Amino acid sequence: QVQLVETGGSVVQAGDSLRLSCVVSGDTANCISTMGWYRQPQGKQRELVAAFRSNGVPGYVDSVKGRFTISRDNANNTLYLQMNDLKPEDAGVYYCNGAAGLGYIARGCEYEYWGRGTQVTVSS
Questions:
Q1: What pLDDT digit, counting tens, does each position of 17-41 carry?
Q2: Which helix (H) or strand (E) holds 47?
Q3: For the range 107-112, what are the long-range contacts, defined as Cβ-Cβ under 8 Å and sequence gap of 24 or more?
Q4: Which tens digit of pLDDT belongs to each residue from 63-89?
Q5: Full DSSP string of 53-114
């Protein structure tokens, strides 16, 4: 139905910048309502980092406000996460997520879709 593939993870130093990309393919018009980025630090739970709300307004977890920017290129079905001034606590596997929204069952969609993740390592 829907596939998400993340790229852009790397090993960087504190203060560096990275841009993550997520290419989305498949039945996106029918099965993707909102999209966002999550991360999972080693040994910790996955957490929401940034996402577009249903009204199109982006939201961020407090710890990344002012440093991270989520954006999208609808023409190329790509979601981005620009990460500036990276800190060691930003390290983890970053996942792209797409949610189908209300009525997903009737539309033949899954509740949400995940990519396989891309690793971000930040050395101090």
A1: 999 999 999 999 899 999 999 999 9
A2: strand 47-52
A3: 107/30, 107/31, 108/1, 108/30, 108/31, 109/1, 109/2, 109/27, 109/30, 109/31, 110/1, 110/2, 110/31
A4: 999 999 999 999 999 999 999 999 999
A5: -TTS-EEE-GGGTTTEEEEEEGGGTEEEEEE-S--GGG-EEEEEEEE--TTTTTTT--SEEE
